[in-house]
# Entry
Amino acid sequence: MKKIGILTSGGDAPGMNAAIRAVVRSGISAGLEVYGVFNGYEGLVNDNIRKLDRGDVSDIIIQGGTILGSARLEEFKLVEVREKAVANLAKHGIEGLVVIGGDGSYRGALALTEMGINCIGIPGTIDNDIDSTDYTIGFDTALNTVIENVDKLRDTSSSHHRCSVVEVMGNRCGDLAIYAGITTGAEVIVTKETGYDEAEVLERLNYFEQVKGKRHAILIISEKITDVHLLAQKISQHTGFSGRATILGHIQRGGSPTARDRILATQFGDKAVQALMSGEGGRCVGIVSEKVMTIDITEALRTPKKSRKPLFELHDRLV
Ligand code: ADP
# Structure
């Protein structure tokens, strides 16, 4: 193998640039030429591909987002569209591809591998919703952004006898909510795993206010569960707190990656290059119990959802 490509796909995440840098520099150190594909799978189909040198990835380890851009291309599920991608890769002589993204991007990588282009996936998403790895690139940075913002809300909440309802991202994965809940000392955490029962949430808040005498409360809730503004209204009506909702939204996707994300991204990028060089394809990189490894994408997509029960129990003991 002489030439490999790299692309970022799906939602962007801080640390993707650190992974791009690692792939480019690790590839060049091993004697490969590395090509950047711009705007995800769209760039493969439109031949938006350019050779990257060491200098092209200088200074990007500290930058959030992705210098290659990202996009979603529904049509990539069609074989005739992927054939264009394969033809463009062949034109450049690119035999292997690193794909940084989430589950959807992994499916594209698997489909391309089946058409003769060896692909290695790298988990890049702030949601930590890829079950085959303990952590995805971007999760730690997003978590720290959530903590910073909730800490600020706590200051103003306590001055006003308020319950701050904070909606965090996660795309049906509760990790951002549970980790943020524990690290900010939130009173209530609601995720898909805990389930949502409005009456129970109001009752718990009343208990904290009346029995425990709390002057404020923080409620952290995953996105896509309920309308948080309506919930805040109900809190004002049915508890002693005044409810206020904050949707953190896309600020969770930005920022310079944390040390942890930079290290993870660097290890993942380097591992992906090694995997391609040893002839692997249709596999993805992950970290499990501190060990960086690759596994089959098919197996990764079948990994059962992680339960966070021990973390919820820990939270319950401390609140
Ligand atoms: P993520 O990678 O973050 O999960 P998406 O689910 O949006 O994000 O997937 C990113 C892109 O991967 C899609 O826009 C599409 O181009 C490609 N993709 C997703 N599913 C498939 C599939 N079954 N076959 C081929 N390509 C796919």
